[in-house]
């Protein structure tokens, strides 16, 4: 922790007001739940303009652009800090088994969440192909554009074949640019809960 020097009068004022020096908590504007709907709408319109510029020879509407991503949840996180009486250790009782991770794949467009599926195994190209096949059974036959992040198995021939055989397209966004995939905001809000 950095050393913050205070004068005597400042120190007395801080003590009187019960103010301590603490580590700051950083909150990112994009991740605030109350602003998330406006942020998602703005990101979706920005993405639509970016896609129209990049793929100007393709005619599509915002409803045909579907954002897909997967995320892993570790449900058995253990806290490192706790509160307790002075002079005694903070104590918590936990189960011995930590359990397994859960992977979730979801798809959304400008109107909201379209489909999701959870797996108890880590996500790979087989689960992605299975997710697409289930999604195609639920959606209309109009041609869709799927926007996905740059994970290695999104580039696999199996995933591309499953999508392109149905007459759809895959667009893989550039690495380290989650702001172009609004479903990342959905996942960040889900992890807060």
Can I get a quick summary?
The protein is an alpha/beta fold. Helices cover 32% and strands 17% of the residues. Strands 3-2-1-4-5 form a five-stranded mixed β-sheet, with helices on both faces.
Keywords:
nucleic acid binding, RNaseH_sf, 5 strands, Tc1-like_DDE_dom, 5 helices, elongated, 193 residues, alpha/beta, five-stranded mixed beta sheet
How are the elements arranged and paired?
Layout: H1 8-16, H2 36-54, E1 65-73, E2 102-109, E3 112-119, H3 125-138, E4 145-148, H4 157-165, E5 169-172, H5 183-192
Parallel strand pairs: 1-4, 4-5
Antiparallel strand pairs: 1-2, 2-3
Helix pairs in contact: 3-4
Number of strands: 5
Q: What summary fits the major beta sheet? A: 5 strands, mixed
Name the beta content range.
15-25%
Shape: elongated
Q: Could you give the order of strands across the largest sheet?
A: 3-2-1-4-5
Any idea what the radius of gyration is?
23 Å
Helix fraction by DSSP (H/I, runs of at least 4)? 25-40%
Q: Tally the helices.
A: 5
SSE topology string: HHEEEHEHEH
**Structural class computed from helices and strand pairing:** alpha/beta
Mean pLDDT: 73
Q: Low-confidence stretches at least 5 residues in length (pLDDT < 50)?
A: 27-32
